[in-house]
Amino acid sequence: APTVHPAPSHYRRAYRYASDKAVHANMQNIGLDSFHNYLKAVDKLYAGKTYLFGDKLSVCDHYAFVLYTWGLQRGFAMKDEMPHFTAFNDAMRKRPAIHRVFEDENIDVR
Q1: Residue (of 68, 62, 84) closest to 35 by Cα position
Q2: Under 8 Å CB-to-CB from 15, ≥6 apart: which residues?
Q3: d(CA 90, CA 52)
Q4: How much is the average pLDDT of 11-33?
């Protein structure tokens, strides 16, 4: 998470990292590319597993679920490029608690 989380911040909030607006577009592109690559690495972590640590759901899985949603929001081809991460996401979306959170927070990401 220390490397995955800042990557979308560089995309969305370049002004926090550089005062020179001339470098913002480049920083945003690099942040977006980095985030995309980190998500592909997470996909590999889910290969052959239900959850990151085997058969038990952990807080790390919930965080990964958020990252998947961010990937969708940024227009990445999650389903085509990340089959293991997508299978995990699909399973998480079947959980009643996830349905409640999406409804309570008015989240609609498909």
Answers
A1: 68
A2: 21, 24
A3: 15
A4: 83
